[in-house]
Amino acid sequence: MDYVKAFFVGGLICAAVQIFMDNTKLMPGRIMVILVCLGAVLGALGIYEPLIDWAGAGASVPLSGFGNTLYKGIKEAIDKDGFIGVFKGGFTASAVGISTALIFSYIASWVFKSKMQ
């Protein structure tokens, strides 16, 4: 049942974003920023964490989940280090995910022999 919930919630998020892309003239980069900010705002309001607890990866994998991760990292760093946590909290919370994406992208460029265009 966990897989069904994750598929359902992730699909709803993706479908809503696709409808938003089709019905507005916003560029995809701006829509991605909106998703990250929306995840951070919903996390600050206490709405996103229960959704992640219920839906699992269906809510944590989309970009809104990344925004929620950034919010949680900043909140924890502010509690621990004070104002300087605003600047370092997001980096420490998301470092593993970003590093993994960079490393696997680099490995994929070797495997598929990508070239600069």
Automatic annotation (TrEMBL):
Transmembrane annotation, as ranges: 31-48, 91-112
Q: Which UniProt keywords apply?
A: Membrane, Transmembrane, Transmembrane helix
InterPro entries the UniProt entry points to? Spore_V_AE, SpoVA
Q: Is the keyword Aminoacyl-tRNA synthetase in the record?
A: no
One Pfam short name:
SpoVAC_SpoVAEB
The record's listing under PANTHER family reads: STAGE V SPORULATION PROTEIN AC-RELATED, STAGE V SPORULATION PROTEIN AEB
Q: What is this protein called?
A: Stage V sporulation protein AE
Q: Can you name the source organism?
A: Anaeromicropila populeti
